[in-house]
Amino acid sequence: MHKLTMIMAGLLLTLPLSLQAASLTPEVPKGKGKECVEPTAEMRINHMEKILHQRDKTLREGIRTTKHSLKECIECHNPPAKDGKVARIGSDDHFCSSCHNYAAVTIDCFECHADKPANTNYRHSLVEGGKIPHHANMKDEKVLSKDTLEVFAEKGDVQ
């Protein structure tokens, strides 16, 4: 009987710790789709490999698909909130940042790529007057993608 009491006391003492640990995990915003392009457990572990593989296929072989594209991930996983605002990278409300902040992992994808969905009414307009970012050192805005120009415009990096 004494052994059973000790086991029960041990379990009761560890219960608050397990409940506390459960609340320490990041809260990940839900995607707007019904299901991800891969099983959730697979994406949690291997999302970066899939994104890098997609990047290599696109850049080296010219193969553009949407299944594992970063743009499609953002379209689904970072929609505007009910108030119409869109979470930006670095915010715990941004899908990517919600886990990366928790894990203290720095990501640099959004230094070039848009961190919010395209083709929506909450995007900034293109750079006014056809001016391009000063650090691009290019005279023709057609060289830069619309998303890139918008990221530069939002950061104020325009001429």
Protein model, in words:
- This protein is mostly helical.
- It has a domain at 124-159.
- 45% of the residues lie in helices and 0% in strands.
- The chain contains 5 helices and no strands.
- It has helices at residues 2-23, 40-61, 70-77, 95-103, 146-155.
- The model is unreliable at 121-128 and 132-142 (pLDDT under 50).
Order of helices and strands: HHHHH
How many helix segments? Answer: 5
The whole-number mean of residue pLDDT values reads 75
Structural class: mainly alpha
- Beta-strand portion reads under 5%
Number of strands: 0
Distance between the termini: 80 Å
The Cα radius of gyration reads: 22 Å
Q: Return residue spans where pLDDT drops below 50 for at least 5 consecutive residues.
A: 121-128, 132-142
Give the % helix. 40-55%
Tell the overall outline.
elongated
Outline the biggest β-sheet: none
Brief sketch in words of this structure:
This protein has 159 residues and is mostly helical.
What descriptive keywords fit this protein?
mainly alpha, 0% strand, 159 residues, elongated, 5 helices
List the helices and strands and how they pair.
Layout: H1 2-23, H2 40-61, H3 70-77, H4 95-103, H5 146-155
